[in-house]
């Protein structure tokens, strides 16, 4: 049994959902059955755990606290190739404030309440009890990892867990959502420029998102560029009328993460595409 698998199993004993991370400290790509979310993905992407196939698929959503799954033959090859153990903070009822440099650490020490800390290569993870949505770059050198995200396990850390403070929650509130809220199902929203919404039926938008997932999944090289171009295409067609929801964006981010993209890369690509289009 590898050291990574031993660590993972010890975490599951505490109810922490875990997953293997490969070179680059990113999740493993989807198996052929789940490529392009052909399997339908997770029935509820807000909960951790594998889809119906036994492999390590769907990025952070593969995380599970079931030791039988973690030690299963279907995960064995991934553990042999793993470079470290990841976990789903939100699934463990936690939020990680990832502080990447000295300036970020100085800010945290003067702004946030003391809690459990874990040293990283460039800074520290500050871990709080409680969950919230994950957001990158809430301020220079600061990422928030909780629901629908993963963090690298770097040890138990030091200090006592504190409750998630309002100061951390406020960081996500201050950052505007990248997606306009969905319109009521009975109303056809109007575009920013006064144009009529092109989504005559829900199937139109559904096809567009499915095609975008397939385009990302099919990328055999230049994944970064493919993800950005795909996000740009989706936003250029669907980004002005208000029909895109968090669920749609989650599907796109999950497809990108399944190809090895980090949450930060996804967020940056989405933001850059919005900026390019003036959204």
From TrEMBL:
Q: Which domain of life is it from?
A: Bacteria
Q: Which SMART domains match?
A: Prim-Pol
Q: Where is the DNA primase/polymerase bifunctional N-terminal domain?
A: 8-168
State the InterPro entries in the record: DNA_primase/pol_bifunc_N
Record protein name field: DNA primase
**Record organism:** Streptomyces althioticus
